[in-house]
Specification:
Length: 133
Amino acid sequence: MNPITPIINGMKITLKHMFMKPVTLQYPTERPKVAARYRGLHGLKVSHSRAKCVACYLCPTVCPAKCITVEAGEDANHDKYASVYEIDMLRCIFCGYCVEACPVDALKMTGEFELANYRREDFIYSKDRLLEK
């Protein structure tokens, strides 16, 4: 076998891959395509200018990471609502059990994946930050 043939075969492979579509994204300008069922940041749905959550405590009960805190309140019509709703994103494992357990479909997983922050306090998402805009 000629000692040049492995070098030529290697150059063929290199030239073939050199003219293919690039694999990486130029991130700030090019955004990745997120799948429809991607489990990103949580969000609370709104109904009649108020969060749909009725503070049934199913989401913190079913959460394996115990990252959800809910405190119930009562309005003038004696309807229960979540006066405090917090999710600690540092503990969350994004399993989606909380969304599946919600009986009133008040919680959803959005496609937002940019969750980086500089302080630990910024990873605790309160009810105001979770409400859909």
